[in-house]
Amino acid sequence: MKNRRNYYRILQVQPDAPPEIIRASYRTLMLGLGKHPDLGGSAAEAALVNEAYEVLSDRDKRAAYDDELFRTYTRKTAPVSRKPLVPALCPVCRRAPGREAAGGEICEYCRTPMPSSQRTRRRSFERTRCSAKIVYYTSWPGEAREGRMIDFSPQGMRFVCGGKLEPGSVLKISTSALEASATVTNVTRESVRGETFYAVGVSFIAVSFAETLGTFLSVSG
To answer: Does the structure show a pLDDT above 70 at 54?
Structure first.
């Protein structure tokens, strides 16, 4: 390759991203994040974003670029890595950090704990009952919604809220005890004295506790 720029990283998309995602990411970078010079962005940085978009938005140019990118990485003499060329996206805001996240790292965009390549061994730990206010987001940026925690463990938590959530959806959760990204595993509709609410169970994708509970042991993967 004539240069070492990774256009996928520049546009913050995965190598298999469809054209509509590439187009949306380009517009977000130029307009939403203010990289366009008319919005106060750097002319050099905007030129680089435009260069990446010009290649990745054109089917033939993108195919040629992908072939060149593949040859560049496979010519390396170092052992072949099975990791993707672009690091994992933040589970909440879907942005790439520009490199692989380390254990305990926080997403620079939405301030959510990022999953890492380290395996986390979780010791036996019973659920702890805790009635505390939580704030959660179903998208980022998005509306902050409130709920109340029922209990939690290092694997996940349960809470009640007034809005229905779909199993499989990803949440950003903030409480006085923890910050987490989590997947909704189950939702139960309840009704008490004519008032409807939902009991929600979530499994943590990544979690950062305000205080060390002595229940995590991280080991290299």
So the answer is: yes
Burial class of 48 by CB neighbour count within 10 A (0 to 12, 13 to 18, 19+) = middle
List, for residues 7-28, the tens digit of each pLDDT value.
888 888 888 888 888 888 888 8
Rounded Cα distance, 111 and 104, in Å = 11
Domains recognised in the chain with CATH numbers: 7-74 (1.10.287.110), 119-219 (2.40.10.220)
Q: What is the pTM of this model?
A: 0.52
pLDDT of residue 137: 93
Rounded alpha-carbon distances, angstroms, from residue 43 to 9, 84, 185:
18, 30, 45
Q: Where are the beta strands (DSSP E) in the chain?
A: 119-122, 128-129, 133-137, 145-153, 156-161, 170-174, 178-192, 195-209, 216-219
